[in-house]
UniProtKB/TrEMBL annotation:
InterPro entries: GH. This is Agarase. It comes from Flavobacterium chungbukense. It comes from the Bacteria.
């Protein structure tokens, strides 16, 4: 029996949400159970939060580099940087949240100063998508940040109006037939429009890079849907039919299509989007990283499609993945992502909710556990697996602040759940942050520990 088998991990009970009657017990790997690992005081860091342990070429902007078979983000000063971020770093918009904000902070500048300090004190070095970028970038001591633009999202908002505001058939993310309208010439002007705003960030050293769109449905049956659900004069049908004619001959029909054809078409369809957005983005800002279009791990089809990843690797600097409904990430799958794409990845959304928050916790994709401490144990278990994997360059916890159940203006999935590191009154969940901090502070040493093994 090896040492690994003798370790007794803490047990954590979890369920999908408060409506699920079934609790399942999971092991939670934690830093204190790593044989021979000694936690250290926080490493000295650069102004960006990179670890001052070694230094490579400093280009003045963030970049990536593979060193001894491990991918790294390299900060503008040349130091290794593991992105430990919090998404949706903003002060809430509901009436209740505004009241609490005014009472505690008095001003936006005071909020960003105090809460940036809270993040740094707990080992975080940046913020993720949908954060208050203007406040963050203009702070006295800025956190590293990202910008999300949504060219397809903008086009989709107008496209649906042609159908009276509702498609006859739509499901995931409310796209018609689950198809992304990449072949439409009209989409091109939305790409141009969405990149106009990025020139203001072009020279900002604290910007990591850009996301374009979130969780678009890159499904493996896209060829079938283009050919059977779209009218013959629609641009998507015309493009799909031309692709099939070229691949299989003019007389080919759906009955001739193989699974290999479907995967190849999905790659072609995805690449049409990637070409358009990256060309425009690189032209508008050649200095910063392209962090991709945020794949959705929950639906998972694109994440097991090597063809999609080959395309992603051609265009993205870092591949971004929202990761839900798995207790921990799969090493085999993470290895595949790196092998197929030749690029590192970043987990851009993930969280778990606590029963002790007093919130209903009916909505959202994160697990439900019993306590804030157990939320922290989940964080440790998950991030240890990320740090072990040489293709992983960090993570963004979703999110800074809890939902306010009384705010009915938000979408349903962000309505009533404990996702934050602070509650709706801006009170931090200290048992959660305590468990997060020990991993965050030791992140670099943990990579060394795992690499030696």
């Amino acid at each position: 029996m090896n040492a690994q088998n003798k370790i007794t991990y803490q047990k954590v009970e979890a369920r999908q949400n408060a409506l699920d009657p079934k609790w399942v017990t999971y092991d939670a790997k934690t830093i204190d159970k790593l044989p021979g690992f000694k936690t250290k005081k926080t490493e000295s860091t650069s102004i960006y939060g990179g670890f001052k342990v070694w230094q490579k070429e400093a280009t003045g902007f963030f970049r990536t580099e593979k060193i001894d078979n491990r991918w790294w983000i390299i900060d503008p000063e040349g130091y290794p940087f593991i992105y430990k971020g919090i998404a949706v770093f903003n002060a809430g918009r509901s009436v209740n949240q505004q009241k609490a904000f005014d009472k505690k902070y008095g001003s936006k500048e005071n909020w960003v100063k105090q809460e940036s300090k809270l993040l740094r004190n707990n080992g975080f070095n940046g913020v993720g998508a949908w954060s208050n970028v203007d406040l963050v970038k203009n702070a006295e001591n800025p956190l590293v940040y990202t910008v999300i633009i949504s060219p397809m999202g903008m086009y989709h908002s107008d496209h649906i109006k042609k159908y009276g505001g509702k498609y006859k058939e739509a499901s995931w993310q409310n796209y018609r037939f689950d198809l992304v309208m990449v072949f439409d010439k009209e989409f091109d002007s939305y790409v141009q429009k969405s990149v106009e705003e990025v020139s203001q960030y072009k020279n900002d050293k604290y910007l990591m890079g850009y996301f374009t769109d979130n969780e678009l449905p890159w499904y493996n049956d896209a060829l079938d849907k283009h050919l059977t659900l779209l009218a013959k004069d629609e641009q998507g049908y015309i493009a799909a039919k031309a692709w099939l004619d070229q691949r299989k001959g003019f007389n080919a029909s759906l009955s001739d299509v193989t699974q290999e054809d479907r995967m190849a078409f999905t790659a072609f369809y995805f690449e049409t989007y990637m070409k358009k957005v990256t060309e425009a983005l690189r032209k508008a800002d050649p200095n910063h990283l392209y962090l991709g279009c945020r794949f959705n791990q929950d639906k998972e089809q694109e994440l097991t499609n090597p063809e999609i990843f080959k395309v992603a690797g051609k265009y993205m600097d870092i591949i971004s993945i929202n990761h839900y409904r798995k207790w921990e990430p799969s090493q085999e799958l993470m290895n595949n992502w790196g092998e197929w794409s030749g690029k590192p990845f970043l987990i851009t959304e993930w969280y778990t909710k606590g029963e002790d928050s007093g919130l209903p916790n009916n909505t959202g994709a994160g697990w439900l556990v019993r306590t804030q401490k157990e939320r922290g144990l989940f964080y440790q278990n998950f991030t240890l697996d990320l740090l072990k994997n040489k293709n992983s360059v960090g993570w963004h916890w979703f999110k800074y602040m809890d939902n306010d159940p009384q705010d009915l203006s938000t979408d349903y999935s962000n309505r009533d759940s404990n996702k934050g590191i602070v509650n709706s009154n801006f009170e931090p969940y200290l048992p959660l942050l305590k468990e997060m901090k020990v991993i965050n502070d030791n992140a670099y040493e943990l990579t060394r520990y795992f690499d030696k093994k």
